[in-house]
UniProtKB/TrEMBL annotation:
Belongs to the CcoP / FixP family. Pathway: Energy metabolism; oxidative phosphorylation. This is Cbb3-type cytochrome c oxidase subunit. Its cofactor is heme c. It comes from Cognatilysobacter lacus. InterPro entries: CcoP_N, CcoP_N_sf, Cyt_c-like_dom, Cyt_c-like_dom_sf, Cyt_c_oxidase_cbb3_su3, Cytochrome_c_Oxidase_Subunit.
Length: 308
């Protein structure tokens, strides 16, 4: 906060405190010429009279005490813009102190899992339960509470891993994130094969997940040569992808952005840009291991996990 804003706050504080003191003083005394307390002329039932009396002194003094307390509070804790109080207290310091204490408790809880491989952690039901809780708080916003994902967000319960499904690769994904980029190839393909080139390649890509997809399929046959001239660099000549760079397998009939002809054409034409944020700084390595163990266990099942 700048000095000017600080003085603005100080002026407001002084004006409010001074105004409260003046209001109490002005309303707490009788002045010459004021009517007597019994001269209100408001009488009911012969003996019920409305008086016009100031507040009792003890009540007024209580108000003055609250003002004195407020002044002392500001002096001790601060409240005048950028100028700290005598105790040098701040909500930031208080938060940091409480966070440090809670982090110490969490560290003690998580210490037994530090550095352990996630497939080993996945054998511990309690660890998986903790990982599930971390997942629900951190990851469910994208992957859903059931971890089945949505359009553009991968399903974590199947055995399809665009970046590799080994324990180390899953942990690496959680810790450091991933960034998958499918460039827009619409104009390039049009230059290579004409106005129908994107449609041809989309037909061929669709046929890769169908063993009979190329039979009597003119458009897919036309798209095959275009695919081999451009797409093999990432997805490979057989369309099985490359986990090292996040290029998906096109033969498994799993479509992150939708598998309809129109959705595939849109992907080829405009490209895709998917980002999995890094969670190393947010969760720390041990908590990342726990959530990675939970995720890894989803696609392996209890029997497979126990057998590892």
């Amino acid at each position: 906060m700048s000095t000017a804003w600080s003085w603005y706050v100080i002026a407001l504080v002084a004006l409010n405190i001074g105004g409260c003191v003046w209001l109490l003083w002005w309303t707490g005394r009788r002045r010459p010429g004021d009517p007597k307390p019994t001269d209100t002329s408001h009488v009911w039932d012969g003996d019920l009279t409305e008086y016009n009396k100031p507040l009792p002194k003890w009540w007024i003094n209580l108000f003055y005490m609250t003002i004195a307390f407020a002044i002392g509070y500001i002096i001790w804790f601060g409240g005048l813009g950028r100028y700290p109080g005598y105790a040098h207290w701040s909500s930031v310091q208080e938060h940091a102190r409480e966070k440090s204490a809670e982090d110490a408790k969490l560290d003690a809880t998580f210490a037994q899992f530090a550095g352990r491989p996630i497939d080993v952690i996945a054998r511990d039901p309690r660890a998986v339960s903790i990982g599930h809780s971390i997942f629900a708080n951190t990851c469910s916003g994208c992957h859903g509470s059931s971890a089945r994902g949505a359009l553009g967000y991968p399903n974590l319960t199947d055995d399809i891993w665009h970046w590799g499904g080994t324990p180390d690769r899953v942990l690496e994904t959680v810790l450091d994130g991933r960034e998958g980029v499918m460039p827009p190839w619409g104009k390039v393909l049009t230059g290579m094969g004409g106005d129908n080139a994107v449609d041809y390649v989309a037909s061929y890509v669709q046929s890769l997940s169908d063993p009979k997809g190329l039979e009597n399929n003119f458009m897919a046959a036309q798209g095959k040569s275009l695919y081999e001239g451009l797409c093999v660099a990432c997805h490979g000549p057989d369309g099985k992808g490359n986990a090292a760079m996040g290029a998906p397998n096109l033969t498994d009939d799993y479509w992150l952005y939708g598998g309809s002809k129109q959705q595939i054409i849109q992907t080829i034409t405009n490209g895709r840009h998917g980002v999995m944020p890094a969670h190393r700084a947010l969760l720390g390595e041990t908590r990342a291991r726990l959530v990675a163990a939970y995720v890894w266990s989803l696609s392996h099942g209890p029997a497979q996990v126990a057998a590892k």
